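In practice, a research group might receive sequence data for several interacting partners and want a quick structural hypothesis before committing to experiments. The following worked case mirrors that situation: the sequences arrive first, and a predicted assembly follows.
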Amino acid sequence: MTTRTFESVATGQVLGDLVLPITRSLIVAGALASRDYQDVHHDPVLSKERGSPDIFMNILTTNGLVGRYVTDWTGPGGFLKKVDIRLGAPNYPDDTMTLRGEVIETADDPADPTRGVVTVKLAGSNSIGDHVVGTVLVSLPREAS
Amino acid sequence: MDTRIDHSVALAALVGQVSGEPAMGPHLVNEAMIVHWVEAMGDANPVYVDDAGAREVGLEGIIAPPTMLQAWVMVGLRATLERESARASGSAKSGEESANDTMMRLLDEEGFTSVVATNCEQDYDRPLVLGEQVAVQLTIEAISDVKTTGLGTGRFATTRYDFYVIPPSTERSGSAIAAEVASAERIGTMRFRILKFAPAPRSAPKPPRPLPSVTQDNAFFWEGLKDGELRIQRCTSCGTLRHTPLPGCGECQSLDWDWIVSAGAGEIYSHVTVHYPQVPSFDYPLPIGLIELDEGTRIVANLDMNPDDVKIGMRVQASIVAFDDELSLPVFAPVTA
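A structural hypothesis for the assembly, expressed as tokens:
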């Protein structure tokens, strides 16, 4: 797996879409992997009793998917510095979420002259609307001079 | 008249306060939890699972996915179930109320009993590596003025989670953890923003549309609609069509009649859009057309289109719409060329 270099990235560059089927398995596996045992993330019957039409994805899973989307694009040498998300429409089972992103800024890494920091603005939308919108800061290696 | 309880002063005093004692994650940063995470996320990044792959990009070994930050301090299934059963049985929380508990109680008292998470902002100072022990300390960072949102009226509250690495040998007591955290290295923060709100009153379900008054003269029309037919009354003496149904012919005064089935095609002869007064059974603005049917009489009916797009002379076609089990009506929509 190769890593993008800081020099190869420019403002306005678009990340490829990631189309994610929102399965029950994804929702439940994400909740349990994040040790979030609230019943609204795994029990459809109790979810309905609490007024939700079905189970829905927890926030930690959304964080994980957003982080994965960006590092899928950077390659393994892209290091996450910040994941800042706003939450909207829930991810219910049998929906599809499409993540889209764009580079909105490139800057020096004040902590490391061998790397630069890229800001990606992204949104993940499902059939209801935007599940998540946010920005991710990721540092990339500079080309060896 | 606003009789709402206002805890603005008490809430403002909470801002900046550390909430409770710091807590220690139940497990060291470990491979098994990382594998569960990356498999759930479908994340194939080698730096989380493969030592050589991590070294290849300049790391000193496997790192935990940065977005797992909070997962390391989640209390787990048993504690979650205990908390839920304590809440269900109404048994009081033991010990002192934390700043976060106080904030939630004050917001409840203000009537803002519902909660929704709105933002999660994580900053990573450095990645976590295998074998590290994570601890977390909460601080109330911000509580907003009362805001009106789409969900209802309430306040936004931001809690900051500061994450530290402390020695794995730290004793699991509040004071011991606090003593270590005081001099520990912070490795990340999370700002978690919620909206505590009073749900906007839910609008009552829409009542059904009023039912027609069915008589011997007009029963054929309503029965036709239930069968999916738009029936138009016809004078059997002179052949003139008429709508709405009447006992006698306006042209020849004959009392003999039958009906035809209209194809439902025609054009808009005139129209009106109702904005007011609003009756709960209907959606507004409510466009209504006077349709000149091709068979040669006119009928008043709902229009299924944007009121701004309605034009006199526009070609329209009826479909029979069942509004509920009791009522079906013709609804006219533009014919797309």
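Before designing any experiment, note the following. The domain at 8-29+64-199 of chain B is CATH 3.10.129.10 (Thiol Ester Dehydrase; Chain A). Residues 207 and 281 of chain B are 5 Å apart (CA to CA).
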